[in-house]
Amino acid sequence: MTEHLSIALTKGRILADTLPLLAAAGIEPLEDATATRKLKVETSVPGTSLLLVRASDVPAYVQYGGADIGVTGKDVLLEHSGRGIYEPIDLGIGRCKLVLAGKPGVDLNGQCRMRVATKYPLVTADYFARLGRQVEIIKLYGSMELAPVVGMADVIVDITETGSTLRANGLVVLDDIVDISSRLIVNKASMKMKHKTIHALMSAVKSAVTEKFND
Questions:
Q1: Domains in the chain, please, with CATH?
Q2: Would you say residue 114 has pLDDT above 80?
Q3: In what order do the strands lie in the sheet with 96-102?
Q4: 203: number of CA atoms within 13 Å, CB side?
């Protein structure tokens, strides 16, 4: 009997880059997953479907069994507890950096308690704890670069690919925190219960990743 699989993805550039990797495993959507308004899309493999959810929700769908497999950024995974999830494959797509940024010349070693704007409060708290610094973290969901400009925060922790948005708002990278790329994640229970099917998919995806970056 064919095992049913659900794969949690998120729309945008990462979806466009992920679909060819899934196609290498024989999994292709039956309609344009990049354009549809549906949240569940059937594929060329009977019983295997794509779930289109927010990037930040992918780990939760996989952890709690809403999906067997997911693809999301390492930044999202670092902010997630990671319980109930395996992270077996770095897909090498969606590469960027999580950085500390602020205005040129900002005093990182001052006596005042810095305010840090970010949508990654857990990662940010861990980063400054390793530096032995106490900071006030302001949780934002977007337009992070604006916070230092209007004086709401001293610095930000955010992802950047080219740094162009930072520069456009008068900010510079003060420290590289961690390299980010998209990862394939698997529900631990699914890995046991659907071992053969999932390992076959993982093997095909790994081969596709290797071929993509060796071309």
A1: 5-94+181-214 (3.40.190.10), 96-179 (3.40.190.10)
A2: yes
A3: 136-139, 115-118, 155-160, 96-102, 172-180
A4: 6
Mean pLDDT, to the nearest integer, of 127-154?
A: 95
What lies within 8 Å, CB to CB, of 120 at 6+ separation is 75, 78, 79, 98, 157, 158
Q: Is the pTM of this model over 0.70?
A: yes
Task: Please say whether the beta carbons of 172 and 101 come within 8 A.
Answer: yes
SS3 96: strand
Which pLDDT value is given to residue 1? 44
Sequence letter at residue 167: R
The DSSP result for 118-168, as a single string, is ES-HHHHHHHHHHTT---EEEE-SS-TTHHHHTTS-SEEEEEESSSHHHHH
The residue to which tokens 């790994």 are assigned? 206
Please check whether residue 101 is in contact with residue 180, taking contact to mean a CB–CB distance below 8 angstroms.
no
Kindly tell me if the per-residue pLDDT of 92 is higher than 50: yes
User: Six-digit token pair at 197?
Assistant: 């099917």
